[in-house]
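look at this stuff:

>
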Amino acid sequence: MQKRGNASLCPAIRPWSDRTEAGARDDGAGHVDFLTDHKIPVGAIAGRIFDWLQDNGAFVFDTLAIFLETLIDALLALFLSPPGIGWLTGSAEPVPLYPAAWHPIVVIAVFVALTWALQRRWQTCLLVALGFLFVLNQGYWEETAESLTLVLSACVVCMALGVPIGIAAAHRPRLYAWMRPVLDLMQTLPTFVYLIPAIVFFGIGMVPGLMATVIFVLPAPIRLTHLGISSTPAPLVEAAEAFGATRRQLLWKVELPSALPQIMAGLNQTIMLSLSMVVIAALVGADGLGVPVVRALNQVNTSLGFESGFVIVVVAIVLDRMLRVKGK
């Protein structure tokens, strides 16, 4: 006696279920093919924009590259070459005021004096002195000078652009609403993506590394300046307006002093983020502490990688302690 159940219905049901599953798979594949066949040309549009900029903006990019190279050379000369006077001898080569071997010690002394002027704490001054002396002891002074040049150049450009943009955004909320997605994109886009247009427009060297650093770092001073200006206490603004302060006086004598801690925090973040880009910038030919790190990665050299990486950490700690914002 045969048992009756679902098994007897399987031969009749299975072909229909197979056809149904096959049809579902075909319909799903058709939808996927429709989506992939009608791809939004994001990359093609970006390529056309970059090609147009390269063809029509060569003069602008060349002028910008000359300005940035001049800034980099001037800062690098401050770190690596002792000051000199050429008018005493009338020669084209300036006469150094002291031997070139002393120049790192002089630069370290200047950093210590600057730290004392900013922090007024001998412990911080001692930390700065010991940190830079450690860098000198490890033989990375020239690479550190090149990285500091990249960092300071990025700070000059980012603060010169970021602070005015942040002030304008704080006074115009609609402008900041339009800017916020752009700032989010600049901070979330992988940093390696910045290197592609930097190489296209500026070639290989310090300038493309600097431009990639500026794009990555610029949102920090904009956001923190906007935060500082927007957070100005309303009673201060009302009191200044009651005494007849103009918009310029309100900005320079009320809003900027009130926002100074946030602006200094933006400067600190700018320096830290710029220093984090030294290894990325080395991939496009920028000199500095990123070069030995990349070399160690290519050679799988653990000692070289740890040595140069530890120097980067020491420099980051020193700069952070130098520019740490004091509490109100």
